[in-house]
Amino acid sequence: MTPLSSSSSQSYVKDPRNDDVDVYVNGEFFKRDEAKVSIFDAGFVLGDGVWEGIRLIKGKLLAIDEHIDRLYEGANSIQLDIGYSKSELVEEIWKCLRHNDMHDGVHIRMMISRGRKSTPNQDPRFIVGGATLVVVSEWKQPNPALKETGMKLMTSTIRCSTPDVFDLRLNSHSRLNFIQALLQAINMGADEALMLDSRGFVASCNSTNFFIFRGDELWTSDGLTCFNGITRKKVIKLWHDAGMIVHEKPFTLSEVYNADEAFVTGTLGGVTPVASIDGRAIGGGKPGARTSRINDIYQAYIAG
User: Fold this and answer.
1) C-beta separation of 280 from 257 below 8 A
2) Partners of 266 in the β-ladder
3) In contact, 112 and 80? CB cutoff 8 Å
4) Residues 6 or more apart from 223 whose CB is under 8 A from it?
5) 3-state secondary structure (DSSP) of residue 149
6) Under a CB-based contact definition with an 8 Å cutoff, are residues 272 and 264 in contact?
7) CATH number at residue 181
8) Which DSSP string corresponds to 178-219?
């Protein structure tokens, strides 16, 4: 099997079983080529909605309570009525998994928009129905090659937004600024973009959270302008519980360039090493022992 987009932290190994997976749309199931929403849907018109990425590992939905809490907090922030209680929504996920006979090694993308509008405009008062709920479940294994080689990052000129502009704790469908940052990185021969905040401190990558090691100390941003990452929180806790030092604080590119190791975290990829940033090797220019150790600790956690 060949990894798709093999240099991305979101890359995965192609699985032919996904060709026959049915997609859940508002309580019904459709072949993936037949699943659709209205062109008047608020998610299509404006990116008006929230989403979650969740993994199914050995029959268990990993960190499901944290994912559902984050989803509902985001929906509440934009006054989006999901139409289900938390437990009812989790049952809809299980309904999709049972329908497709899935038990392990699955990534679920749950997408909720405000719903269909009477006309394509910005005003949420033009909604004519309830929320749109889509669940896409696929067999996905992270690309193992990245664990061996590490990623190349480039610092983007596009900054992560402050909460008064757009709060990144909201897992919104709208991702255009991050796509622009990623395109900059790709055009410069990198795999993903490293992004700064409005102060010039390191914030996150375009789709993942960013960490460095300085000695045995684990550093990550102060969290003011980075994604509210569930894997990020877990890695911080796991390293702390192992008796090691964790700093959540502002730090600069100069401190990154002089780091011993670097990695990113995300739901699908877990812990993904970083080999270089802006053409400069980090540490030895390949995944290091500390990153390998935190990855081992994280893998033990998800194995349960």
Assistant:
1) yes
2) 270
3) yes
4) 248
5) helix
6) yes
7) 3.20.10.10
8) HHHHHHHHHHTT-SEEEEE-TTS-EEEESSSEEEEEETTEEE
- How buried is residue 205: exposed, middle or buried, by Cβ count under 10 Å (0-12/13-18/19+)? buried
What letters, b where the CB count within 10 A reaches 16 and e where it falls short, cover 267-277?
Answer: bbbbbbbbbbb
CB atoms within 10 A of CB 4: 13
Quick one: which of 173, 274, 167 has its CA closest to 228? 167
pLDDT of 2 above 50: no
The predicted pLDDT at position 5 comes to 52
Range of the domain at 185: 145-303
Which residue, of 98, 124, 139, is where some domain finishes? 139
Cα–Cα distance between 81 and 8 in angstroms, integer?
A: 34
DSSP state of 41: B
Q: Which residues contact 35 (CB under 8 A, 6 or more apart)?
A: 23, 25, 134
113 C-beta neighbours (distance < 10 Å), count = 26
pLDDT tier, 1 (very low <50, low <70, confident <90, very high otherwise) = very low
Alpha carbons 6 and 18: distance in angstroms, whole number? 18
| Total number of domains in the chain | 2
Read off the pLDDT band of 304 (50, 70, 90).
Answer: confident
Contact 113, 127 (CB under 8 A): no
pTM over 0.70: yes
